[in-house]
Design brief:
Number of helices: 19
Strand content: 5-15%
Largest sheet: 4 strands, antiparallel
Bound molecules: arginine
Radius of gyration: 28 Å
Oligomer: single chain
Distance between the termini: 48 Å
Structural class: alpha/beta
Strand order of the largest sheet: 1-2-4-3
Number of strands: 13
Mean pLDDT: 95
Length: about 575
């Protein structure tokens, strides 16, 4: 038996539907829309009435009389045109809680159909510092990665480094211009490399010749000019080291650190395939593929200068992920402003039959904005570096923590500040619907109250302290008041919450639930004392519920990529 509450209720319904020869596809329950009337409802009788050509109330009543034989329910009613309202018995809820607390997955089912998923997130470009735009890809991507793994899928994450585009030729060209040649390239560190890039960027904007030169060098690099390749390797490696440090702070995990350059050879193969299948054409010197919907711009496979561009690289990468990694699903966590790009490359992959039966998904996210609602900028109007943003947040959190505290070393406090700051940044991001943008609120994001990461971390620390202080051990759950009952029913929603977040690739479903659970726990704890409860059975039952809440909050934070400190200090 599956111990998730919703699943076990569904199973009960399916059995009854089968015994009454009713189509079990309508046998599903959902959390009640009317919590004042019931815990769960089933609307299947209404749908069945049409196919069975019967009165829905009659069908519902028939089902109800079967349900009444089951001690899991304390009340069954047929309401309105044929809604079935189900109220669970306290004993049954207690039993579900006991089973949930014994299960290491807290009742969350593992998929019976595991898929091999390649996740593409990160996407930083060589020689450019990570900026605030990279935050969401890392944070949302990592969260979805953890959710998919927890659900039982096999996930390979690939950072897909932007290491092959025109910016590479621009930097090489800039170095040559300043140094005369590339002989000193190997000595340059990441700051120097970024500064070459910045200068190159300005120069190429102003000077058409410089731009043309950069384009030529890029094409030669892509064709394997050994001197360029050697210099490029150093630039790439230096950048990669810096990029890895950024992702380490954010605890975003990649299994593969491949880049656009790794798809180069396959790009050539894809172009040939398109030509051979008669799907490409030459237009103004470029090789293009038209799409079914001619209002969409065609995909450029080979540019008129012979270079391979961004679109072809992504298409070739699909082929590699399918051929080499055996991907069954590919998820891209990339700014939603690139959605046309993804529609285009998915269609081309389909036309070329590069990925039969592979499911593609672009999880497009909105921008991180400043107080003015426009993409977040530094005070002087520049792009906000990710590292600066993290440091700014760390400073803010440090202000709210004591400098020293009994039993804590400076390192402990530092570690706590980091967990709180990163937790606050991530929670602020993941509490928003992925598709919408949000305002990065430096004043509120790390508050201990409200819908924030620290609020959840604090709830966990508080329960830790209760568990530490109590002399009792958690024992079997008994439901003795409304707050315990509400809390237990909230806990029982975990499975459906995680399933929905997985299906919709939407971590905010988990952050919403996590915040609600912490709030419901708060009301429970106010109404149901543990330390001062004289009845030992009640007290140790509440301890078990508290521990369960602590473990679920911790799991949910983990699924959002957030760590929970054992204890939290406050100034
Ligand atoms: N490097 C790209 C950029 O900065 C993002 C890459 C996104 N991933 C992808 N597979 N296209 O815009």
């Amino acid at each position: 038996m599956s111990i998730s509450l919703e699943n076990s209720l569904n199973q009960k319904m399916v059995d009854i539907f089968n015994s009454l020869s009713l189509d079990p596809k309508f046998a599903f329950v959902k959390v009640s829309d009317r919590p004042d009337l019931s815990d769960f409802q089933c609307n299947g009788a209404l749908a069945l009435a049409k196919t069975e050509k019967k009165n829905p109330r009659e069908i519902a009543t028939q089902i109800a009389s079967e349900l009444e034989k089951d001690s899991a329910f304390s009340k069954i009613s047929v309401d309105g045109p044929g809604f079935l309202n189900l109220t669970l018995s306290d004993d049954f809820i207690a039993q579900v809680m006991n089973e949930t607390s014994k299960d290491e997955r807290f009742g969350v089912a593992k998929t019976t159909n595991p898929r091999k998923i390649v996740m593409d997130f990160g996407g930083p470009n060589v020689a450019k510092a990570l900026h605030v735009g990279h935050l969401r890809s890392a944070v949302i991507g990592e969260s979805i990665r953890r959710i998919e793994v927890f659900a039982g899928h096999e996930v390979i994450s690939d950072v897909h480094l932007g290491d092959w585009g025109t910016q590479m030729g621009m930097i090489l060209s800039e170095i040559i211009l300043q140094d005369g040649d590339l002989s000193k390239t190997q000595t340059y560190n990441i700051e120097e490399i970024s500064s070459f890039y910045k200068k190159a960027n300005i120069r190429c904007k102003e000077d058409e010749n410089a731009k043309e030169k950069a384009r030529q060098i890029t094409a030669e690099l892509q064709n394997g000019n050994p001197e360029y390749v050697k210099a490029w390797q150093h630039l790439r490696q230096e950048s990669l080291n810096a990029i890895k440090q950024n992702y380490e702070i954010l605890d975003a995990n990649f299994d593969m650190w491949l880049g656009e350059s790794d798809a180069h050879q396959t790009c050539g193969e894809v172009v040939k395939m398109a030509e051979q299948q008669g799907l490409s054409e030459v237009d103004d010197g470029a090789t293009i593929m038209r799409l079914a919907d001619d209002s969409k711009p065609p995909v450029i496979l080979v540019k008129s200068d012979g270079g391979f561009g961004y679109q072809l690289t992504d298409i070739a990468t699909i082929k590699m992920r399918v051929d080499d990694l055996k991907a069954q699903e590919i998820i891209y966590v990339v700014d939603k402003r690139q959605s046309l790009h993804f529609e285009q490359i998915f269609e081309v992959a389909e036309k070329l039959q590069l990925a039969p039966n592979v499911c593609f998904k672009h999880v497009g996210f909105g921008t991180v904005n400043g107080a003015d609602g426009k993409p977040f900028k530094t005070r002087d109007g520049g792009v906000m570096n990710l590292e600066d943003l993290i440091n700014m947040s760390l400073d803010k959190v440090r202000e709210s923590l004591p400098e020293n505290a009994d039993g804590y070393t400076a390192d402990d406090i530092n570690q706590m500040a980091k967990q709180i700051a990163i937790g606050a940044i991530k929670f602020q991001d993941l509490k928003n619907n992925t598709g919408s943008g949000y305002i990065f609120d430096i004043d509120d994001f790390a508050k201990f109250e409200g819908k924030t990461g620290p609020y959840i971390q604090y709830a966990i620390a508080r329960i830790n302290s209760i568990l530490r202080k109590s002399e009792l051990a958690p024992s079997d759950v008994v439901i003795t008041n409304k707050e315990e009952r509400d809390l237990a029913l909230k806990i029982a929603q975990l499975n459906s919450v995680i399933m929905r977040a997985e299906a919709e690739k939407e971590p905010s479903i988990i952050s919403d639930y996590t915040y609600n659970l912490a709030q419901v726990f708060s009301s429970f704890y106010n109404a149901s004392p543990i330390m001062n409860e004289e009845d030992k059975n009640k007290a140790s039952s509440r301890l078990r519920l508290a521990k369960l809440v602590r473990d679920i909050l911790t799991l949910n934070l983990y699924l959002m990529g957030i760590e929970a400190p054992e204890a939290m200090l406050k100034k």
